[in-house]
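Instructor's aside before we start: the two examples that follow are unrelated to each other. I chose them only because their records fit on one page, so don't look for a connection. First example below.
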Amino acid sequence: MNRHVFASLLLGLLSSAAIAQESQQLSADELRARITGSTMEFKSKIDTPVRWTNNPNGTTRIRVTHDRGKGMSHDGLAPGTWSLSTDGTYCLTENWDVVHGGPQHWCAPVIVGSDGSMSLRHGQAMIEIHQ
């Protein structure tokens, strides 16, 4: 096995172990209570802020703010729906128009830190959950 591949696998396992040690388990009802009404926020691959709030009825509006420089910006908005499974997996359906890449659906486990903070890992992005 290539040394670089082995090192990458080892680093991934160590990172997973660190997350597991730093996290705590919450019941599905506790997670749902904390996620309902919370705001999710992260920076996209191109350093663009993305934000949405988890409405109690399972709906949301995803906002992407594109900075055009010189104090000008443009917001992209998409309606969406969110859900939380009994095993703590958060799912989001983003109903973007074709210009913004079309609809997307993704799921990620909720990570609860030892300090009670919550986040999701979606691809390369770490999504912060603000209550």
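Example two begins here.
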Amino acid sequence: MEKERKNIHPQKLLERIFRITKRKNEIDLTGSVAIVNGEVSEALFETEVYQVTFSIGRGQRKKQYSLFMSPSECIPKEEIDQLKQKLGIEISGDGSLFKVERFERDFKIAFDLKNSLSIDQTGIKKGGIVFRKDHSSRKTVQLPYRKQKKKELS
């Protein structure tokens, strides 16, 4: 008996596997691979172009800005300026290693996973990375202090 072969539509084939690492405010894609004609290669990934979406807020107040990145090219200054103007997020670097320099509020970075896969690591889930603004400026709640009775030494 022969096994049934499933025909996979070409649009459902994997094209990329993202290996995303977050170190503090750096996003590193070293080790990501492209799949072309069944060949898996880091070198082929260098020629890829993929979409990255930055978003702030939720629901109807959600704002997004998407840009296309290539691992072998610096992020254009115009794109950096637009991202800063629209969402208050400032980045630098290239498509394989970029750094979030400054941001005004919590935001999320989402890598387009159409025909791609992301290897989940600490802080990264399904190609998404959340950045949180330091909330140390918030008042800390202090509980009332109770004096402890001194024990008499005998």
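Helices lie at 42-45, 77-87.
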